[in-house]
Design goal:
Blueprint (H helix, E strand, L loop, with lengths): L2 E12 L20 E11 L4 E6 L11 H12 L7 H11 L6 H23 L3 H4 L8 E2 L2 E3 L7 H17 L4 E5 L4 H15 L4 E5 L6 H14 L3 E3 L7 H6 L2 H4 L2 H13 L4 E5 L5 H9 L5 E4 L1 H4 L2 H13 L4 E3 L6 H12 L12 H4 L15 E2 L13 H6 L3
Parallel strand pairs: 5-6, 6-7, 7-8, 8-9, 9-10, 10-11
Antiparallel strand pairs: 1-2, 2-3, 4-12
């Protein structure tokens, strides 16, 4: 099965509210956190199959290629290529991307290309993607809802909005929650306490500081948050600041042992699980975390890892060390979420509720059958490949 044509279309979909984290990734003036921008890929073949891919949640600071320019690049590399050679084709795309492309955008783009090719492979073999990834290990992936900070509102307004948000998710069966924290400690403690009260004593609750704190600050604040009700803290220290990881990961890669030791000291002196992102750093960062016993859980975001297959490798690295994994998110739409869910159910070691929030954080999707949470979980579609199809009316509605 050979590729005959490529289409790249851009859409922008509002989020249910404007979302903020402690370090908004070097937010540029005018950058809009009320919606997410995507490039949707379609790879056409001589077998009349179409492979769908997604480049998710593209920020303005990434200076993305225009859809027409990206199409030209992909068509130059992919036209006439055999889907059976998908790993080679992905490698060629990686080589052809401009040298100065933003590092996170590079990973997102390679993810989009790879899942479109995997979608075609699944359709060729008549099998859902999880079968190509080694077979199904879980029936579903449990989901952790992410509650972002709200700026420009009073504490009471934020607490009331958070209560409504968490109540809605609890009524839908979700049993795990993450709160973005790190800007105002007193306010964070109030939010954690409210979330714990509304969600109940038995749900899994974690805080995500996005790398906002130095070590001593992290230890003190995590202890306070543990008393307020959290079970885990994600990305507590500035040595693994998310803005740096997204925009300049080599700074962390070059000091992987130092960052791992910082996390290990925090882990040793706090009473909750420590979670860290690994996908946008190189594999040496993961092995440093293992070597220094720095974390309790790996967070793997496949779109930032550059694809599903590298994510599988990171999951296996964690599994050999006895470290469980969750799948993080950059807020994916239907095609991206489908790939994540297939990976999760095919991975024995993805056992911690995953932050797959796109299906509910966005007001709409561009697929004919959007994902729906059932009892706090997502299940893969059983059709071949990713199992999703585009809704052309939705593509027109949200077109940029």
């Amino acid at each position: 099965m050979k590729i005959t044509d490529v289409q790249v279309r851009e859409v922008s979909v509002p989020r249910i509210y404007t979302t903020y984290a402690a370090d908004p990734q070097n937010l540029q003036p005018g950058e809009d956190l009320s919606r997410s921008r995507y490039q949707i890929l379609e790879f056409f073949t001589d077998a009349n199959h179409v492979g769908l891919g997604e480049i998710p949640d593209i920020a303005d600071r990434m200076n993305p290629l225009r859809p027409g320019d990206l199409r030209d690049l992909m068509l130059r590399v992919l036209k006439g290529g055999d889907v059976a050679d998908r790993n080679v084709l992905c490698g060629r795309i990686a080589t052809e991307l401009p040298a100065g492309v933003h590092p996170e955008l590079r990973g997102l783009t390679l993810f989009g290309v790879e899942i479109a090719l995997l979608d075609l492979a699944g359709k060729h073999y008549g099998a859902p993607l999880y079968e190509l990834l080694g077979g199904r290990r879980h029936e579903r992936v449990d989901v952790c809802w992410v509650g972002y900070m709200r700026r420009g509102v009073s504490l009471q307004e934020e607490l009331d909005a958070l209560e409504d948000e968490i109540s809605t998710m609890v009524s839908g069966g979700l049993r795990a929650f993450k709160l973005k924290v790190g800007e105002d400690h007193s306010r964070d403690l109030d939010r954690i306490a409210r979330c714990r009260r509304v969600a109940g004593p038995d749900v899994y609750l974690k805080a995500d500081a996005s790398g906002a704190w130095d070590e001593d600050e992290a230890i003190e604040k995590i202890r306070d948050m543990a008393a307020a009700g959290i079970d885990a803290c994600e990305t507590p220290v500035v040595a693994v600041n998310r803005a740096v990881a997204n925009d300049n990961p080599e700074r962390i890669n070059e000091n992987a042992d130092e960052a791992a030791c910082s996390l290990a000291r925090v882990r040793k002196q706090t009473p909750v699980q420590i979670i860290e992102h690994v996908a946008d750093m190189d594999d040496g960062f993961s092995t440093a975390l293992i070597r220094h016993r720095a974390v309790d859980v790996f967070n793997v975001i496949p779109s930032q890892a550059g694809g599903i297959l590298r994510s599988q490798r990171l999951i296996h690295i964690a599994q050999t060390a006895g470290i469980p994994v969750l799948l993080g998110s950059t807020v994916e739409m239907g095609p991206g979420t489908a790939a994540f869910v297939h990976l999760a159910v095919a991975s024995e070691n993805v056992t911690v509720p995953s932050d797959l929030v796109g299906p509910a954080l966005l007001v709409d999707d561009v697929c004919k059958t959007p994902f729906r949470y059932r009892d706090g979980a997502l299940e893969p579609f059983e059709k071949p490949g990713l199992g999703v199809e585009l809704n052309e009316e939705k593509m027109k509605q949200w077109a940029v």
